[in-house]
## 1
Amino acid sequence: MTTKVKFATVYKAILTMSVTLLLAFLLAACGEREPAAVAPSPQPAAAHAEHAAAVDHAEHAVVEHAVADHAVADHAVVDHDAHADHPETLAAAEMPGSSLFHLTGAFTAQDGTEFRLAELSGNPTVVVMFYGDCTTACPLLVKSAQDIEAALSPEVAARTQFLMVSFDTARDTPDKLRAYADEKGLDKDRWHWLIGSPLLTRQLATLLGVQFRDAGNGVFAHSNIVTVLDSAGVPTARLEGLGVALDPALAAITAAVD
Amino acid sequence: MTTRTRRTALSLIVALVALWLCGAATAATMVALQGGEVELLFPIEGEENTVVAPFSIDIVPVSNADFLAFLGTHPEWQRSKVPEVFAGQGYLRAWPADLDLGELDPNAPVTDVSWFAAAAYCEARGGRLPTEAEWEFVANAGFNAPRGRDEVGYNERVLTLTANRRPNPGPVGRGEANYYGVKDMHGLVWEWVFDIGSSFNTGDSRSDGDRRLQLVCGGGSAGAVDKSDYAAFLRYAFRSGLDGDYSSSGLGFRCAG
């Protein structure tokens, strides 16, 4: 009798434990399943940087707003390591609502360093989107940027920056872009050859009104647009198509420097 | 003995209930799909079909309540704070205040959101917007077959769903699940996709060839693969005209991963 009671107690304990374990297991499975299901496809690390900066242009100083929900909270809107020759970086609060500098994600430049649009603040910029394997239109787009630089007065040219951003986030690398730039004698100061995450690239293209599509075989269909940003990042000229007159771009750049 | 049997039965019931609760709580957000070939409505030279890699997609569009929660943690996307480059005047226009849904149904799909805001929402969740090809892959599924066109009455049904949308779309999740278990692809709202501004039909081209021409020009639909799929024609035409800062009360989104 005693043995039977003991057996029943042990049995009960084992049963209770099993149920508890089963519940615990189920709960654990519950907890794990959701993130697993939501897990994104692998993306370049740069994709995470885009959330770094909370752009609050309303009333707070930028530095106070280096707040982010992700681990990259130390990347404020204004990169404190910004090049020494761009000291006048605008605070987000001073940025016009139409400034592209609100796009805070980090690109990677041809030297492998991070590059944010806000680093362009204080001087005008010529923006071109292209890709390294592009043999037809892109060399002409790059040539347009070169021609713009050559047509500016030396003083204005010395302050004008050139942003060459790749569509091909899968195949272009900093090394490849540096080689591309070097071949054209354009791996130099004020020429930034950039690659971003797929999202950042699409965001910039959308801001510039540049259409592009990955045809899947290393070829991109894209519109041919040269944009001029003033010193606050606001687009002030747009050349659409190839072989068009550069005058509107030259005028916008000169106005931005004056 | 009877007690023991009862206890065992009870435990079993508890376990089953737990399992059901667990399933209900987590299975409700996304479905994982194997991907495959997508037949594009407007085939691009050398690209008759696009192959979509495995991906996950939300079962239902993002709701007002979901978006409200996001705005709480990402104040830079609140209506009074978002810069105009990312959202035009109509952004969240039905919201009385930054964090106030007012009369809006929390379970209705969020609308009046720009592409930039939708993309930021999905990114904050660790996902992204579905590509146009992924979205169409899911939308082309029938209710009982992976290829809607193989299903009798599919085109009519989708067109009816698309045409009968209400100005104030109802709660998400009420539509019938399609073959993949995804709901509300046609009956509630238009949806943003990742690759807006990709309506091109030429390669590395010197001319700005533009698929929009096929979509907006009279008789443009002659280029479409399936001329009876008028709902798909409407989707492509609608998407091709969108800018990233645009928003409308009939345009929402869901996320992929």
Note: The longest helix of chain B spans residues 2-26.
## 2
Amino acid sequence: MPKMTLSHFEAAVLFALFTSIVLGVVTKKTDNDRLRYGLRSFAYFMAALIGLGWLMHFGHG
Amino acid sequence: MATKAITTKQPMPPLKLWAPAVGVAWLIPGGGHFMLKRPGRGYLILLSVTAMFLLGLMMRGAMFQPQTGDILTTLIYCGGFIGDLSSGLLYLLSTWLGYAQPDVAGHVHDYGTKFLVAAGLLNILGMVDAFEIATGKKS
């Protein structure tokens, strides 16, 4: 098994992507709703990731 | 005037109706959906859970072993073990083939450990979805 080194950002984006796919698949009842929920979930993950990243950046001074 | 809520407990659906689908969904991520003729959703779950698990292995994440002690230790190690085990065959094969990464410091290993657990947790969501489809609560 090859070894992989990812940055914090890359790992968090991949985590957000796969989690959003499954959340979209299992949560809603129609394909259209699933797609929209998955995309919205991914957008929320990214907003939290970037927001918290900047918060930590400014918190460190 | 206070109103009294009437709650009726729904009977558990027969085991033979949902157990095969949930069992297959545990062993093979998305397998329950394939069994229940929902291949599109099955492929998405299979792709996501497998990719997350393989990324966890490639980042050399550690597998949890159940440990007891104070409440936090019990929660983390037993919960982590259940999360790892929930990936089904992916977990069983990797441990049978000798994957035993020690828990070492570093953000990549740490993410790997979380990816391995999260893959199992996502598979639990897939199992619950397979249960709901098999029992007719969902299409």
Note: The mean pLDDT of chain B is 92.
